[in-house]
Write a structure and sequence with these properties.
alpha/beta; 8-stranded parallel barrel; two-stranded antiparallel ribbon; binds ligand G3I
Length: 366
């Protein structure tokens, strides 16, 4: 990258702060953060990139989410060892700058410690032992943050993506993912297999036991607009609420594409109006709503539409009383899980794109 072009670095920038503007309305403007970029641990090193990345983070956000550093497979190294080293650096950095964090994620079918799966498969651990160990893990992880960084984590993604996709091969009845070990090719869920059909409730109860003050979210994708998977998630959460399971919020990931605006499928409504209705329905159900992983993939000729989409999404989402946070899944196209679609609002040189301007305009006009 050309570091000389990084115009947003440092204080005194002519640009306003996205989080400063959102924060004046009591809202969070957040992003996923990658430890190795923030702390200049890339191989090979990119010190200019890392410095520019850190400066933008500091200027524009009041909420950080470790993109993968808190996932179970990345921290739970062996039965009695949780490695907090990367999380501690992110947490200290955020706390020292007055930022908050989202905890992502306690239990996710795609992030499995290999030793735990192997131990279950070879009979070392029974289902009951897996349950005891996961409850211990949650207690340790949440306890670490409660004790070492009180008040820092304002939301926990307790369970992520438990409901199957809009794909009849994986989830013919649009309910929980099928139990099993093969998540990569069959979308199976190890947690449903080992912790049982009521595992979502069990995990929320364990999280509440670990920290009764923690604010607990169910997080998923394709739940942002009217469609069968979204209905299955409403059913799941209604079932939890009927059993007094401690759930406080719903995370709508919002991994979108510009082309969604043109799509039409029977039974699905991809419109922004449908997103607004969905948010309102969750609010009526008593849950806080956070847009948790916003990015908008585009093809090369769609920059203007992408920018408009960012602005509309922010306007429609964050300005609603029922929505407390707008969190994007990274901010620069250089550091993105789908960089090929340039889905963010700073370019690969850390220059603001039209999407940044569109969101700034929405916040300034608020
Ligand atoms: O860091 C290693 C690198 O050393 C290695 O060379 C490379 C080879 O594959 O892998 C790198 O790790 C990858 C890591 O991202 C960092 O880039 C992992 O393979 C890859 O699986 C991991 O992907 C992450 C994915 O979750 C799985 O944890 C994505 O970055 C992250 O954006 C994505 O985030 C998820 C949310 O948690 C849940 N919602 C969907 C979202 C997108 O899939």
């Amino acid at each position: 990258m050309d570091a000389g072009k990084t115009s947003l670095v440092g204080t005194g920038s002519p640009y306003e702060s996205l989080a400063g503007l959102a924060g004046s309305h009591g809202k969070y403007f957040g992003t996923a953060v990658v430890h190795d970029v923030l702390f200049n641990e890339l191989d090979p090193p990119h010190p200019d990139l890392c410095a520019g990345y850190a400066a933008i983070l500091e200027q524009h956000f009041n909420l950080l989410v470790p993109e993968s550093e808190m996932k179970m497979a990345n921290v739970w190294k062996s039965p009695a060892l949780i490695d907090f080293s990367k999380l501690d650096r992110i947490a200290t950095w955020a706390r020292d700058r007055g930022m908050k964090m989202r905890g992502h994620v306690l239990v996710w079918y795609r992030s499995l410690p290999p030793w735990l799966v192997a131990g279950y498969q070879d009979g070392t651990y029974s289902k009951e032992q897996v349950a005891t160990m996961v409850a211990w893990y949650i207690d340790q992880l949440m306890g670490h943050f409660r004790n070492s960084y009180p008040g820092l984590v304002i939301a926990w993604d307790v369970v992520n993506e438990a409901v199957g996709p809009n794909d009849p091969r994986v989830a013919p009845s649009y309910g929980l993912r099928p139990p099993g070990i093969d998540y990569q090719t069959k979308g199976e869920d190890f947690w449903r297999l080992t912790l049982g059909d009521d595992y979502v409730a069990r995990v929320f109860n364990w999280a509440h036991d670990a920290d009764p003050d923690a604010v607990l979210y169910y997080n998923d994708y394709h739940n942002e607009y009217s469609n069968p998977k979204g209905e299955a998630i409403f059913d799941l959460v209604e079932g939890l609420q009927a059993k007094d399971v401690p759930i406080d919020g719903i995370g709508l990931q919002c991994h979108f594409e510009v082309s969604y605006l043109d799509m039409s499928y029977p039974g699905m409504d991809f419109s922004l109006a449908s997103l607004g209705d969905t948010i309102d329905r969750w609010t009526v159900s008593g849950l806080d709503v956070q847009l948790t992983e916003v990015d908008i993939g585009r093809s090369s000729n769609q920059e203007a539409r992408q920018a408009a989409f960012f602005g509309e999404l922010l306007s429609l989402g964050l300005r609603r009383d029922g929505v407390s946070a707008f969190v994007t899944w990274g901010f620069t196209d250089l550091v993105s899980w789908r960089a090929d679609q340039s889905p963010l609002y700073f370019d690969r040189n850390l220059e603001p794109k039209a999407g940044y301007q569109a969101m700034l305009k929405v916040l300034e006009a608020w």
